[in-house]
Amino acid sequence: MENTGKYEAVIGLEVHAQLQTRSKLFSGDSTAFGSEPNTQVSAISLAHPGTLPRTNKKAVEYVIKMGLACHCEIERFNYFARKNYFYPDLPKGYQVSQHTTPICKGGYVSIKTAAGKIDVQLNRIHLEEDAGKSIHDLDDDYTCIDLNRAGVPLIEIVTEPCIHSAEEAFLYVTEVRKLVRWLGVCDGNMEEGSLRCDANVSIRLKGEKTLGTKVEVKNLNSIRNVKKAIEYEIERMVHMAEKGETIVQQTRSFDADTDTTFALRDKEEANDYRYFPEPDLTPFKLTEEFINGIKHALPALPEALYQKYLQMELSEYDASQLTDDKATASYFEEVLLHTNNAKAVVNWMTGPLRQMLNEEGASFEQSKVRPAALATVIGMIEAGKLSFSIAASRLLPQMLQNPSVDPAELAINLNLIQVSDTSEIEAWVQQVMEKMPDKVAEYKRGKKGLIGLFMGEVKKLSKGKADPKMTTQLLEERLSK
Ligand code: ADP
Ligand code: MG
């Protein structure tokens, strides 16, 4: 629990997302995850003398995609900068990144908090290359280095210091992960490290305008850890401030076993990265045509669809369920090409169909029940030919078994078609009344609640096929005589 009292927490997040390009940012090396260590490392990725990097156009396209989806301004004139530092997993001795001119500037990502919608302001999104990976737990005496990741394209999404709680940070990272997946630019897999987050945290007295001294918690590898680390930091800092201690600028790490953070190093005065324009790469200019091409190819975004679904009079809950991922939204949109009954589609998609897919571990994309088939079932229910419960419990499993058969035909073959023939239902009603004369008498004396019992009996007799509306009507008619 965060009890900040007279303090306000200030948080800025840096999210690194690995782009799903097939090759690295500046070489043709594969980016496939999980390959034999150090098998995807060419001389270019190592910057051996005589090699020259070339920029991967797909990576540029992807960062612009993300920038447009986040309402950023796109920089037309771009160059890369060398960020020099020494680290064992950085074979070149520098990282190619962007410095003063990120490709995407400003923008925001909207989150829905309990208190309402907040636009989390972005400072920038830039393109850079990843470093290799140091593995400390493979060998007792040595740290092992895998350079397969060195040179894989990353985007770094940096917020302004405008987030004020661990919960907001949690929602923000969740939203960013949803967006990168939606756009197909990153798989968003935090366990495999394709999405990583650094959290910068400070506190200040409420009402204060200047920022407090921050600490940076590095490499948070799950959204839960982002939240836990920030919660812990805020508490730690408030505690220090209350004791009159000075908070020093630090880089910290999170320990997921204890949900605490510990200091890695105190930050020196200023970083000494000696940035300079990358001399081996020519600056690149983006044409309007290129940017417009990307803009026009953008899929409908979750926020826009969410608003559209509210307009269709779906609840906020339904709208957010449908826009949870792109496969779900696309499926919904496709069913709507065949039926206008949006609410019925949602009920199926959040109810029986979802349940069935969960059992198979499948997504809507892989659903064997095709959108058109679902629409057919909904149409049959609307027309009174099928009851929802029979469709869900008996027809749906058969549709999964026989995905190519028309559900209308399946329902007939399985003898599931609802009976709305008056004489047939009347016969069942008659039978029920004859079977329970005492109850009928009680009903006639005023115990109207018994109608449910009679309905249940007709349902049993008809094996659920009696049209319930007609059944009620006929029962009421007969009982009032
Ligand atoms: P650095 O040079 O240390 O990386 P930046 O100014 O580039 O710092 O900011 C990095 C991140 O830290 C951004 O997300 C920014 O919003 C955040 N940030 C900067 N100052 C503070 C602060 N005092 N408190 C919390 N977050 C901050
Ligand atoms: Mg930083």
So what's the overall shape?
A: elongated
| Small ligands present | adenosine-5'-diphosphate, magnesium ion
- Total separate domains: 3
Radius of gyration: 30 Å
Report the end-to-end length measured between terminal Cα atoms.
65 Å
The averaged pLDDT comes out at: 93
**Given the structure, what is the number of helices?**
16
What is shown here, in short?
The protein is an alpha+beta fold. The chain contains 16 helices and 17 strands. Helix 2 runs antiparallel to helix 3, helix 5 (302-311) packs antiparallel against helix 6 and helix 13 crosses helix 16 (468-479).
What's the layout of helices and strands?
Blueprint: E1 7-18, H1 57-69, E2 73-74, E3 77-78, E4 81-84, E5 94-97, E6 104-105, E7 108-113, E8 116-129, E9 133-135, E10 144-146, E11 153-159, H2 166-183, E12 195-205, E13 215-220, H3 223-242, E14 250-255, E15 260-266, E16 276-277, E17 284-285, H4 288-297, H5 302-311, H6 316-322, H7 326-335, H8 342-350, H9 352-360, H10 371-382, H11 388-401, H12 407-413, H13 422-435, H14 437-444, H15 451-461, H16 468-479
Bound molecules: adenosine-5'-diphosphate (ADP) and magnesium ion.
Magnesium ion binds next to loops.
